[in-house]
Amino acid sequence: MVQKNTYYEVTFTDLTHDAMGVCKIDGFPVFVKDALKGEKAMIKITKLNKNFGFGRLIEIRDESPFRKLPICEHYHVCGGCNMMHMNYQTQLDFKKYRTQETLRKLGKIETVVHNTVGMSNPYYYRNKAIVPFGMRHGKIVAGLYRPRSHEIVDIRRCHVFPKVISDIIRYCKTLFAELQYTIYDETTHQGLIRGLMFRTSHAEGTIALTLITKEAKLTEKERLIHNLRRRYPGIVSIVHNINTEKTNVMLGSKSRVLFGEDTIQDTLLDLSYEISHRSFFQVNPEQTALLYQKALDYAALKPTDTVIDAYCGIGTIALTAARHVKQVIGIESVKEAVKNAQQNAKTNRIDNVRFIHGLAETILPDLAEHKPDVLFIDPPRKGCEKPFLEALVKLAVPRVIYVSCNVATLARDLNFLQANGYTVHETTPFDMFPQTSHVECVVLMSRVDK
Prior knowledge:
- With about 450 residues, the protein is of the alpha/beta class.
- It has helices at about 90-105, 165-180, 220-230, 285-300, 315-320, 335-345, 360-365, 385-395, 405-420, and strands at about 5-10, 15, 20-25, 30, 40-50, 55-60, 110-115, 130-135, 140-145, 150-155, 195-200, 205-215, 235-240, 255-260, 265-270, 270-275, 305-310, 325-330, 355, 375, 400-405, 420-430, 440-445.
- Strand 8 and strand 9 form a beta hairpin.
């Protein structure tokens, strides 16, 4: 019987969906962070559940040839990345395998899964992140959380953030202390500064900052803006977001602009976009361009086509497709994103697209009269609501392109569509989040002729 706090010599035979090593002790499965398939190691059992346990890697006795030394000094304590101990090709192979196995096991989908599309430089790629602030031993800390906790890892440099953002985070710790801003404490619900959100423009190199506070009152605003702009002239927007709720959700419901506009400009596939601090925009611009091009290739658009873009965000897929078809209709639940999308259509002089504010599952059934030829789906991690999938089936859209950031909910939704008249032709995984186990997929489906 496996005992907690006991040491065992094990061999890792597989990886979990989140890249933990899998070993068995007398048939009892144990999951261990930072272990690789094929390695032999000494582990310590840290937690036991009824059917499985968790362990900590103590010593690697037989190291995998695919292991590498993480470049980040915070890697073993930070929850931001979980695959930096693998060489990059192994990460890409893992994501292809994970996509195949999840589609097969959860969705009963047998289809072609292509090699994962990777990056030439899999670091410093994120154009957006929210960074919590806190206090420890009388000093301000800022960074990312430890795995499965709300303890902030005080990060000197994050290797998936642009380098300038790590510099800004470090500088803000000093600046907030100089301005005598108090720092928010989750346990007492006291303090002013909750965190920072940043966006960067890949095309223009500009930066938008959102300062998240517990209270609406913010002193020394002019000094704050002056110091940030003097040190980082690339900052073109500073927004003050107020979150008075006792919650671990960072962004509050109210915001006001302190400097510039509540938008940042970026370019994707030769189109320009205005992105507000609340709008969704893919976090990896280099990979997004490749992903959207694959989605367009799968769609095989024709000049006579009518296209629906569900969960359209600020209109990136809709506007890209509009140049190739008769008309596009975008559906989006976030009002600010719809406004951004409408402005983006004007900015790019595209007049054959319209955007509707509302839930995709509510709006889609009302669009039957348009007889859509192609439907793009790019939902949040939870996937599509069942009423939306039922409406899709009823509309019998000939070609469907599904873009997913969660292969588990993708498998669930594809299983439903496959059982209701659709064939899954092929899938291409994209490494949108290098150094993590997350994977983005583009799937081509078509209606089966009866």
